[in-house]
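Task: complex structure prediction.
Instruction: return structure tokens for all chains below.
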Amino acid sequence: MTASSPAVAAPQRYLETQIRWHSLEIAFWLAALLPFVVTPNYLQLASQIAITALFALSLDLILGYAGIVSLGHAAYFGFGSYTAGLLAKHGWGEPLSGLLIAAVAAGLLGYATSFIIARFRHLALIMITLGLGLLLAEAANSASWLTGGADGLQGVRMWKLLGIFEFDLYGYVGYSYSLVVLFLTFLVARRLINSPFGLALRGIRENAVRMPAIGAPSTAHIRKIYTIAAVMAGIAGALLAQTTETVSLETLSFQRSADVLVILILGGAGRLYGGIIGTIIYMVARDQFSGTTPQYWYFWIGALLVAVVIFLPNGILGGLARLTDHWRGRA
Amino acid sequence: MSTSALSTRGLDKSFGSLVVAKNIELNLPQGERYALIGPNGAGKTTLINLMTGMLRPDGGRIFLGADDITALKPEERVKRGLVRTFQINTLFPHLSALEAVTLAVCERRGYAGNWRQKLPAYRDAIEEAYAILVSLRLGASCYRPTHELAYGQQRLLEIALALATRPQVLLLDEPAAGVPHDESAELFAVIANLSRDIAVLFIEHDMNVVFRFANRIIVMVGGRILVEGTPSEIAADVRVREVYLGKARHG
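Output:
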């Protein structure tokens, strides 16, 4: 009744090419190994970058794909961080199981809050996520008997990774660990984005009004991705606690929520690599500037943010994509 | 007369003092083609919003077949086969036409929550989506982002998305809105060719189209159903002439 079989295979092939691994992607992940040989003195920084990139990736899943704006995403990062830190402080310093438990804890918190999140959009959503973030930060501050309050959580002692690798001062093990976890989580995120569920998320972002009219349970989708994003943020937080062997209130702070949003907007939301690229630029720039003129650091970030939003509304990656489109001569 | 696919009993809705639906008693039999006409502001789109659950009625009940669906959410009504399109394009601008229709098929087949497998692995859904697009002559343009499609193609995609849900009852809110006159006949030919299993109710201002494609016509004025009948009955009705055909002719 319809076209012959090769014609039917064409749409499937088209969808295959949409999600194929690009050679630049492979080059990017190989380049992530460069710090081991090129800048071995900066492995601690590289580890922090990998952790923040994972955090940004988790925000990208809800903001860039499902269109959920959050100003309180640090809640899940910090919750994972404290969970892993407290576990290690109180006698269970095994990193991988600690990471897993922190992920589950952050996921449960994400699932609980997702029932509120899924009911709102736009400004109300920003205020609610902001409020939830502040709530948790203040709770951690006042529960200083548990969290150490403003002094931070001291006495976190990690066991050897896999029973073999001791976390060292130079960050060899730290960066290896963070990078592997980032890469594995990235693979999960990439698969998720290219799945039917990922398509449904893009549908919510593109037109929330039409979704119910095609029979889509948008709120159920939102609850699900919000929980998954919380798990990933919790993993990132746990990585920070485990590699630095301390947890501070800063992991829950509004500043961290705002920073990761800035990072994602700079790099380009909804592009999977936007958060990672944004993190590299942001953190390397911060490291460089704070060495010379720390008091002006946010001046430059402010200027960069304004410039990017005006001239590259889809972030740095969006701008690059447009440039390469131009190059190939679409005209 | 065959069994009713969609019906309402005493449906009421007002916004403050403005009555937009008053005691609406509607009965749409299986497989019929109904036109809903009336002057601007008569409450035609509101009625679609009420029946599809996008608005909550102040009173009255809505039945799909024998089931009371008054309390169901919009997406639950779609799952049961009550589907609408929009007067103003309500599409997914940055999804390709193929992706958009595949999404609707995946939602119906219960794939849309799956995130462990790649989309191309769901070959049956993709093939079905592509077949729908081909049947609406969108096959060649289905790889382009929706916002790059010509306006008339976007109107067709509105219908394609609705068809992907396998409707029992299809409510079309001015499917040819903004489409040039000659193309609108083409668009209605598509609607006329829809399976006779689907009951169709369409809102349309062009009387030539209405009289050509509808088995029966419902005339709404001021939130009330004024009269319902066959095209010839409506054409001969004095009240309809007075309030509608006689006064404002809408293009």
